[in-house]
């Protein structure tokens, strides 16, 4: 299967890197920045002259542009058969109306698709080929279109929130005397191991297992509560949702 990316930005790059070695080819366009050619070089694909030529040559199109230019781009994709839309805050119906002759699948991925450990929320057409390709990139969850905004605020945005937490803990470790590079390595590996554990155990159970009464972790958790960290994550998710809904 040949996949054509309309747009060669951050999310297109993450998906293309995750698909290296899995497809018959990858094609890319951009709006003139040169990112399509750069990405094509990196992943062993090809930059294409126009969106129309991309739609002619690809079996599956990934719409990876900003939502505001949907109509402009859709007008150039007349011959597309199956289209995966990554457009944030853009209902399936809206994309399907812009591309009336194509089967449209709505997908909300996160950047961890680059290492094939992404989460990909999916709604829309039952394209077995598209689903098979997406499953290579991580954990696929079918979701009603109406729940996509809420899922985006968690799935799409959370890698940035978790990265911030890792950075802050590592910085604190460095301030406590660890070499900064080592502090980051320790926190990253701790995060990876904790994520594995959290697949088996409830978060409250993990917290309880670490924080013995009167111990140092308990003191740390009490400090996080005093600083309002839990509430701050709630505020962050709501802020993302508000921005998304304009
Ligand atoms: N980033 C994420 O984590 C994430 C997560 C989930 C969903 N998404 C969704 O994915 C989509 C892309 O986001 P992004 O973060 O990858 O954006 P981005 O980095 O800004 O990339 C957008 C790409 O679209 C290209 N473009 C603009 N006009 C075009 C046109 N007429 N024809 C072809 N390409 C065109 C741009 O070209 P130039 O390179 O020439 O500027 C750029 O390569 C958005 O709808 C977003 O909601 C993103």
3D architecture notes:
It is built from twelve helices and eight strands. It has 246 residues and is of the alpha/beta class. It folds into two domains: 2-143, Rossmann fold, CATH 3.40.50; 158-244, ProC C-terminal domain-like fold, CATH 1.10.3730.10. The chain has an eight-stranded mixed sheet, with helices on both faces. α8 crosses α9 (180-198). The radius of gyration is 21 Å and the shape is elongated. Bound molecules: NADP nicotinamide-adenine-dinucleotide phosphate (NAP).
Concise account of the structure shown:
This protein is of the alpha/beta class and 246 residues long. The chain contains 12 helices and 8 strands.
Tell me the structural class.
alpha/beta
Count of separate structural domains: 2
In the CATH hierarchy, the architecture of the largest domain is 3-Layer(aba) Sandwich
What's the CATH H-level homologous superfamily of the largest domain?
NAD(P)-binding Rossmann-like Domain
**Overall form:** elongated
Defining key terms:
Rossmann fold, 246 residues, ProC C-terminal domain-like fold, 12 helices, binds NADP nicotinamide-adenine-dinucleotide phosphate, alpha/beta
């Amino acid at each position: 299967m040949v996949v054509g990316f309309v747009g060669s930005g951050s999310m297109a790059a993450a998906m293309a890197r995750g698909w290296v070695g899995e497809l018959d080819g990858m094609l890319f366009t951009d709006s003139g920045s040169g990112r399509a050619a750069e990405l094509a070089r990196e992943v062993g694909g090809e930059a294409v002259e126009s969106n129309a030529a991309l739609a002619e040559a690809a079996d599956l199109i990934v719409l990876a542009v900003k939502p505001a230019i949907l109509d402009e781009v859709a007008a150039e994709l007349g011959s597309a058969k199956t289209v995966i839309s990554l457009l944030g805050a853009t209902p399936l119906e809206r994309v399907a109306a812009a591309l009336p002759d194509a089967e449209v699948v709505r997908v909300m991925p996160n950047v961890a698709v680059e290492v094939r450990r992404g989460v990909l929320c999916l709604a829309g057409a039952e394209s077995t080929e598209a689903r098979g390709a997406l499953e290579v990139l991580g954990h696929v969850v079918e979701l009603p279109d109406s729940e996509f905004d809420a899922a985006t605020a968690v799935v799409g945005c959370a890698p940035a929130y978790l990265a911030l937490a890792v950075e802050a803990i590592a910085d604190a470790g460095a301030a406590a005397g660890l070499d900064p590079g080592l502090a980051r390595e320790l926190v990253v590996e701790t995060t990876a191991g904790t994520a594995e554990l959290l697949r088996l155990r409830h978060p409250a159970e993990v917290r309880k297992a670490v924080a013995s009464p009167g111990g140092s972790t308990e003191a740390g958790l009490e400090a996080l509560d005093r600083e309002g960290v839990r509430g701050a994550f709630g505020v962050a998710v709501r802020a993302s949702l508000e921005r998304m809904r304009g």
